[in-house]
Specification:
Helix content of chain A: 40-55%
CATH superfamily of the largest domain in chain A: Dihydropteroate synthase-like
Strand order of the largest sheet of chain A: 8-7-6-5-4-3-10-9
Distance between the termini of chain A: 27 Å
Shape of chain A: elongated
Oligomer: homodimer
Radius of gyration of chain A: 24 Å
Largest sheet of chain A: 8 strands, parallel
CATH class of the largest domain in chain A: Alpha Beta
Number of strands of chain A: 15
CATH architecture of the largest domain in chain A: Alpha-Beta Barrel
């Protein structure tokens, strides 16, 4: 697995993003009407309980911007205002205490208005995410003027839009080129105002488009990246699509914060986010369940046992690895790797602790015995910490 | 995204695996007692209905081997017998008509018995998967004799176990080294018998261990790979872990067939498998749902609408892309990319067909209108095919 890409460190409230040693941060976005403070706060508290580290809310009008004061007062994690088109909503959100903005300067149009927002962000010491989305890319002509060319530190690798269009091979200008050129154009607007407290996202529904866009931009700018696959689907399918896309990038060391966009509860977005990071050992949160998929070799109902253990382990915060095995072939080996393992069969179960047989108990007592060993392992881990 | 790794083509029943142009094949494994023919067949039929292309069943004893005759008679997809330790079970499975074996020659021990199985496989023209699993790796000493060294075509890159252990830096011999060395050792046993109708898996629960093992072996042998993350977890967490691990490898062009190991129903394994492949455009099966995650900007209940659309689209086989959007920002853009899209708000909904506004309908009629456009899109696709 590749080392993390070295990026500039920025902050959103107290949460550091980027740099080499900060963890990859999990964030989410509220789905209720931001003007409905009670529902929005309830959503945020739910996400917080799952470990969400930054939350974002849409600010489509002034009433929503006004609601941020009270929302901010009632929550503990940093709040980002998601703004489109209207600079006065950005100014109001900053005044009302948000910890960050998600805003594409290119869609505010008027240079004076952009300058006003950037100056206010500088005074408030808050960062801005530029969020390029496949679904809302500007027309090629619009970014043609700045050319999407060169932005930082003499980097000058991407052809200008004009060059690509005039090369006689307009087909050579791909969606990925346009995603990256759009990001460079948006970045150039902020940099021209001496603002570089920036993070970037480049989201598409198509995974290869997303991956290639991030890969390319990673070679061109030093800013931290917010990763996401846009409109990825339901909790079931969107989690899989997001895991593939974010997984490929994170494995290459690309990505400083992630948001999994699911047509479902914020809590599910956060859970999936952490599962993705845990699978690459990038975060360590709560129990990790190693679960035998069962087969015709098992002589215990492993699937039912696993479901029960999964239920019992829910919400436990200590990062230990628990293995539920039904198999003489892989059971002992996998149990050896786990902090606590159970391998059942023939009316009894063996409980392992780090590979050592801890107890052999009758099947009827195995759940209780397992959980008692889980608690001991948790105590041991806490004592070491 | 990388081009598919060129591998030797093998067959399991009528299903071709490997080569450059065969699709990545989705397989699963039954969880019921193989001797219970009715339950095992029911499981297989369920998996088949989800698109499962190859099924595997454990054969832990002779009664299970005997059951294969009747199971085989009742199913339509190729059947692989999963064997450990006992060569007579492999021989019986071949006699009873299986289309492939999963068997590690190294754990059969006796060379004559291995030869007997290999000759029977050759006569029956069936392939063998060597399945190396982290949970059941042989002791280092056991494969030390053959050295895990060189196997195919003069490749000689991996140090022998002995060299690594004697180098004074035994720590330099990693789990990945041992996974790969074990695979090479197992392969060498079959190759010594002139058998190369082989595919390989190298599964661990740890994603980086799995990825690095496959990556390394990909440079050393020409055989197709069966990908999997072992004991990856419940349907929820295991799908995410598997998507990350398999996604990274498939993005690099590595992988010819996949099995997602979940502590849940076979059908879930197959669904997750196809979702992983669809997210990388490697397979094209059924509807793909682009789903807005909703935010405070939506003035329609997008999540409820998405859940309803998801339900209505279930089981539809035609590969079309349907977008459910609630947002003026990304809605029209994403709908443009979809075969059919719906973007709702303010009591009405716009239905798109490939970016063109097809209809504007009152909110009460939007589901019916959407599904009627979905059916038209399916017809159009079928007509083109």
């Amino acid at each position: 697995m590749a080392a993390r890409r070295a990026t500039r460190q920025i902050s959103v409230g107290g949460v550091k993003i980027g740099g080499r040693n900060n963890p990859v941060v999990v964030q989410s976005m509220t789905k209720s009407d931001t003007r409905d403070v009670a529902r929005t706060v309830a959503e945020i508290k739910g996400a917080e309980a799952e470990g969400c580290e930054i939350i974002r809310s849409a600010v489509p009008d002034m009433a929503a911007a006004d609601a941020l004061v009270e929302i901010k007062r009632q929550i503990s994690i940093p709040l980002i205002a998601d703004i489109h088109f209207h600079h006065e909503l950005a100014l109001a959100s900053i005044k009302n205490g948000v910890d960050g903005l998600r805003l594409n300067p290119g869609n505010i149009r008027d240079a004076d208005k952009v300058r006003e927002v950037v100056r206010a962000a500088q005074r408030a010491r808050i960062s801005i995410r530029i969020g390029v989305n496949f679904g809302s890319l500007p027309p090629v002509g619009k970014i043609g003027a700045s050319g999407g060319r060169r932005v930082v530190d003499g980097v000058n690798e991407l052809p200008t839009i004009a060059e690509a269009m005039l090369s006689g091979r307009p087909d050579a200008y791909t969606v990925v080129d346009h995603m990256v050129a759009t990001a460079l154009w948006e970045i150039s607007i902020l940099e021209a105002l001496d603002f570089d407290d920036i993070k970037i996202s480049l989201k598409a529904f198509d995974v290869p488009t997303t991956v290639e866009s991030y890969r390319r931009l990673a070679t061109l700018v030093p800013y931290p990246f917010h990763l996401g696959i846009t409109e990825s689907g339901t909790v079931r399918t969107g989690s899989i699509r997001s895991a593939v896309g974010l997984g490929v990038l994170l494995y290459e060391g690309i990505g400083d914060t992630i948001r999994v966009s699911l047509a479902g509860d914020c809590r599910e977005e956060v859970k999936t986010g952490f599962e993705i990071l845990k699978s690459l050992n990038l975060r360590n949160k709560g129990t990790t369940l190693v679960a035998c998929p069962s087969c015709g070799r098992a002589d215990i109902d492993v699937l039912r046992l696993t479901a029960k253990v999964d239920e019992l382990l829910k919400g436990r915060a200590t990062p230990i690895k628990v293995a539920v095995m039904g198999c003489e072939v892989n059971g002992p080996g996998e149990a050896k790797d786990a902090d606590v393992g159970i391998a059942g069969g023939n009316g009894r179960a063996v409980i392992f602790r780090k590979g050592a047989k801890a107890r052999v108990v009758p099947e009827a007592e195995m759940l209780e015995a397992l959980m008692s060993e889980v608690e001991k392992a948790e105590e041991a881990l806490k004592a070491r910490a």
